[in-house]
Amino acid sequence: MRKELLGGLMLLILSISACKKDGTQKAIDTEYPVINVTGTSAFPKQCSTVKRGEKFTFRALLSDNIQLGSVSVDIHHNFDHHTHSTEVESCNMDAIKTPVKPFLLIQTYPIPAGQKTYEVQQEITVPANIDPGDYHFMIRLTDKEGWQTIKGLSIKITS
Q1: With CB atoms counted within 10 Å of each terminal CB, which end of the chain scores lower, N or C?
Q2: Element (H or E) spanning 106, and its range?
Q3: DSSP character for 129?
Q4: At CA 46, angle to CA 44 and CA 50, rounded to 5?
Q5: What is the strand order of the sheet 148-158 is part of?
Q6: How many other C-beta atoms are found inside a 10 Å radius of the C-beta of residue 12?
Q7: Are the C-beta atoms of 126 and 55 separated by less than 8 Å?
Q8: What mean pLDDT comes out for the span 146-150?
Q9: Which residues partner with 109 through β-bridges?
Q10: Which one, of 101, 121, 102, lies nearest residue 59 by Cα?
Q11: How far apart are CA 23 and CA 133, in angstroms?
Q12: Half-sphere exposure of 91 (CA within 13 A, CB side)
């Protein structure tokens, strides 16, 4: 029995050592994707203004070291002056107020598969009957591996 055990152990060691690596091991993605809103055509930027009842085009350059996944936008009121801004520049804010009919938009936009860079251009309509005032424009970019970057911009919706 001891001989059989030793023989089995030797066979296991030989079969493991016979396996060779083929060099095709997948690189591990540890980098966050990038949201760039500094380009001349990028919109909105920190402290941008949009009007009720009008459309604007959300434009940003998105990039990742391996592959982009998805991008979403969350527009919500900031009437209570809460913060999740990622920007250094602060904007002039209206007085704190209670929302009556605030604008809320949560939308995901497609990114074609296999892209390392992508310029998102999506038309957004601001309803005419929403509360004007201070809002947050949150951009969430996720790469294919699941790393996420958030850019929080302060915008103002006017009458």
Answers
A1: N
A2: strand 105-109
A3: T
A4: 45
A5: 48-51, 148-158, 133-143, 68-77, 105-109
A6: 10
A7: yes
A8: 97
A9: 71
A10: 121
A11: 57
A12: 24
Quote the CA–CA distance of 146 and 122 in Å, as a whole number.
Answer: 23
| Mean pLDDT for the chain overall | 90
CA distances from 133 to 16, 80, 101, 149, 152 (A): 67, 11, 11, 26, 16
Distance in angstroms (rounded) separating the CA atoms of residues 25 and 33: 22
Structural contact between residues 152 and 78, judged by C-beta atoms closer than 8 angstroms: no
- For residue 44, whether the previous peptide bond is cis, meaning omega lies within 30 degrees of 0, is yes
pLDDT tens digits, one per residue of 33-85? 999 999 999 999 999 999 999 999 999 999 999 999 999 999 999 999 998 87
